Amino acid sequence: MKKSIGAKSLAYPTPAWVVGSYDMFGNANVMTAAWGGICCSEPPCISVSMRKATYTYANIMEKEAFTINIPSEKYVKETDYFGMASGKDVDKFEKTGLTAVKSDLVYAPYIEEFPIVLECKLVHSFELGLHTQFIGEIIDIKADESVLDENGNPAIRKIKPIIYSPERNYYGVGELLGKAFSIGMEK
Known about the structure:
Blueprint: E1 14-15, E2 17-22, E3 28-33, E4 36-40, E5 45-51, H1 55-63, E6 65-70, H2 76-84, H3 92-96, E7 100-102, E8 109-111, E9 116-127, E10 131-143, H4 156-159, E11 163-165, E12 169-171
Antiparallel strand pairs: 1-11, 2-3, 2-6, 4-5, 5-10, 6-9, 7-8, 9-10, 11-12
């Protein structure tokens, strides 16, 4: 029997993404966000939600662009730091030693050391309550060649993305369970 635990913001898993933006002075800034996912296939779009109180919120509203940087497990400390410090108070790139790269397609920076970057232009924003959901059209995806498979697509086992758990923990990707749109045919 299941036990009711009430209405909470719990879903498993959630991403540990780092959202890149430029502030009003043109300074590169990043913040970690877990409330997000793919939200449309055509055009390809992604959603990410954040509170108005974040520095990144104002940056995205002003510049109408952002990047989604997908860190590998080796950058878990930097990813956590990006979610604790504010770009109002500190240069997060200087503090972590990571490299901000200016996107050539949208007005937002991305992190050179992270294996996957989605460059997005803002197409919608929705006030949901405490959070605002930003919908970005994916203009391009940049991937390190080292994380691509034989077909030129990013491979999750090579990326080693960080997964965030709402009980405030980070995890890596587990074992392969089966091929999607195939394993279910065995029933």
